[in-house]
Amino acid sequence: MSQSVYLVPAEGLKVRDPQGGHLKPEGRPVVLDGYWRRRLADASVKLGAPPKAAKPAVSKE
After folding, report:
1. Residue 39 phi, psi (nearest 5)
2. CB-CB neighbours of 27 under 10 Å
3. Where are the alpha helices (DSSP H) in the chain?
4. Sorted alphabetically, which Pfam families does this protein's record hold (predicted)?
């Protein structure tokens, strides 16, 4: 079974994303496969938390 985690790049690094381009500074959820396990082992990425969604504005009518 594949484990999904939220990863962010280590400070000051650009980390290639197998889905194309680079992992964005805010990170993203990924399936923890061999590629991402190696990035964790060499400290290119670290576990992070997804950004909190902004609450929608409530209008009083």
Report:
1. -65, -35
2. 20
3. 34-41
4. DUF2635
**Domain positions in the chain:** 4-47
Of 33, 28, 31, residue with least CA distance to 15: 28
| Pairwise CA distance, residues 38 & 59, whole Å | 48
Question: 32, 6 in Cβ contact below 8 A?
Answer: no
Q: What is the pTM of this model?
A: 0.79
Q: Tokens at residue 16, please?
A: 């290639």
CB of 6 closer than 8 Å to CB of 49: yes
Strand order through the sheet with 45-47: 28-31, 4-9, 45-47
Q: Which pLDDT score is estimated for 54?
A: 66
Residue 55 backbone phi and psi in degrees, to 5: -75, 140
